[in-house]
Amino acid sequence: MTQLYRDIDHAYRLRLCDTERSCIGARLAGIGVHYDHVPLPAVVFDEESRPDEIIGSYIEPLDRLMASMPRVALDVASVSISHPRRETIERELMVEHAHDAVESQVMVHGAGVLFMRTADTVFALSCEPGDYVRVPPGLRHWFRMDSSRSFRTIRFFENEARPRLSHRGEDMRGLFELVGDGLRETPGQSI
C-alpha cells in the first residue's frame, strides 16, 4: 500500500500521515512533487529482459504520462538481488542528492521508500508498482529499497536530457524512523 510519512518533531521520526492517494498527491504538490498512481498491466519479466521489451509492455500508461511532457527519452533502472553491483547501488541510492532538472519515474516492480527533504520538512513516500513521482530540480531526496532488495522503474528524461547532480550530501542509511500503522523501523536498523 502506498503510504506517506512526515516528520513530527525534527528528531528523525516520520509518522504516517496519509494512505489515500489523492491526499498524498495534494500534500506532495505543496513541495513541488507530482504524485500519481497509474494502473499497470500485470507483466512478468526476468532479469535478462531488455529495456525496450519492458517499455513496450507498458506503452499505454507511459503514453498517458508523457502526453503533458516535452520531448521525452525513457530508460529502465533495474536492480535485483543477484545484481553484481546491488550493494554499491543500494548505498548510492541512500545518499541524499538533488538534480539540476526534473527527475520522473514510475515504479513497475518491487517497492521502496522515497525520502524527500525541504528546508524544514522530510517526507517519506512508500512506493509500489504504478506509483509515478516527478521530483522538481533542487529537491533533496534519497531512496531505500524494500526488504526484497530489488526494484525496476521506468525513468523519464524531459527534453531527452539526463539530470545531473546539483547536490550530493550524506549517507542517510538508518537515520529516519518510520512510525504508524503497525510499521516501525528504527534508526540504526540494517536497511
UniProtKB/TrEMBL annotation:
EC annotation from Swiss-Prot or TrEMBL: 1.13.11.53
Domain of life of the native organism: Bacteria
Keyword Oxidoreductase listed: yes
Signal peptide: none
Keyword Transmembrane helix part of the UniProt annotation: no
EC top class named in words: oxidoreductase
Gene Ontology MF annotations: acireductone dioxygenase (Ni2+-requiring) activity; acireductone dioxygenase [iron(II)-requiring] activity
Gene3D superfamilies: Jelly Rolls (2.60.120.10)
InterPro entries recorded: ARD, RmlC-like_jellyroll, RmlC_Cupin_sf
Keywords: Dioxygenase, Oxidoreductase
Name the record gives this protein: 12-dihydroxy-3-keto-5-methylthiopentene dioxygenase protein
Organism: Salinisphaera shabanensis E1L3A
